[in-house]
Amino acid sequence: MSNRLRRSRVTAVGLGFAFLGIMGCAKKEQAGSDTLAASSTAARTDTTANKSLYDRLGGKAAITAVIDTFVAKVAADPRINKKFARSNIPRVKTELVDQVCAETGGPCAYTGRSMKETHRNMGVTEGEFNALVEDLTAALNVFKVPAREQNELLTALGSMKGDIVEVKSNATGTKLPATFKPAPPLTAIITKK
Ligand code: HEM
């Protein structure tokens, strides 16, 4: 999936993240001559076309900011927040950042549990899955991520739906079943010299 995303075509519009500034500078320099303008445009397109979705999103700091905002929205959303009542939220955030980083072609490894194992016995409905996607979209909008990048990310994550949804229903705000077992907190690895 990461490879597919890496190859995907790129918008000429920059993100509301770091590389917008670089694009802006390249644009000003185009004013010189027609020839220069043409070659500058070609170079810019080539450079941007080779960028992974990870880079176009602005790298790990930008992804971390989106996930922080997303998790805050989920915590305030009565349609889904009951499902997180017994979970370790710092772990969820760390794993989500690594997962998005890895899925978008970034230099991270996702070491969390599989989507099936993570969401087993959680009783997630289709309505709740859609509510979570709405919260993620709202977080992406806070950071003005363009539609193309949003679609690429949501398509990648959306393909995991079959491993997450257990109940075919539009209901939201359903209870967390007692049989659900949350993952333990992540522990820091301390190495002796
Ligand atoms: C595309 C959609 C989703 C993705 C990509 C996703 C991804 C993840 C990831 C990476 C984790 C951390 C796994 C770990 O700690 O090893 C996680 C945990 C969790 N997710 Fe999801 N998730 C999605 C949808 C949902 C939905 C719809 C709900 C509920 C409404 C949900 C509820 C939870 C909860 C409660 C945890 C904590 C589990 C625990 O404590 O062990 N997720 N999710």
Quickly give the structural class. mainly alpha
Order of helices and strands: HHHHHHHHHH
Bound molecules: protoporphyrin IX containing FE
Strand content: under 5%
Oligomer: single chain
End-to-end distance: 39 Å
Would you identify the CATH architecture?
Answer: Orthogonal Bundle
Helix content: 55-70%
Q: What is CATH's topology name?
A: Globin-like
Query: If you average the pLDDT, what whole number results?
Result: 82
Integer count of domains: 1
Q: What is the gyration radius calculated from CA atoms? A: 20 Å
**Largest sheet properties:** none
Offer a quick outline of the entry.
Helices cover 55% and strands 0% of the residues.
Could you explain how this protein is built, in words?
By secondary structure, this protein is mostly helical. It has a single domain, classed as Globin-like, CATH 1.10.490.10. The chain is built from 10 helices and no strands. The chain has helices at about 1-5, 20-30, 35-50, 55, 60-75, 90-105, 115-120, 125-140, 145-160, 160-165. α5 packs across α6 (about 90-105) and α5 packs across α8. Protoporphyrin IX containing FE (HEM) binds near residues 91, 92, 113, 157 and 183. The site of protoporphyrin IX containing FE has 23 residues, from α6 and α8.
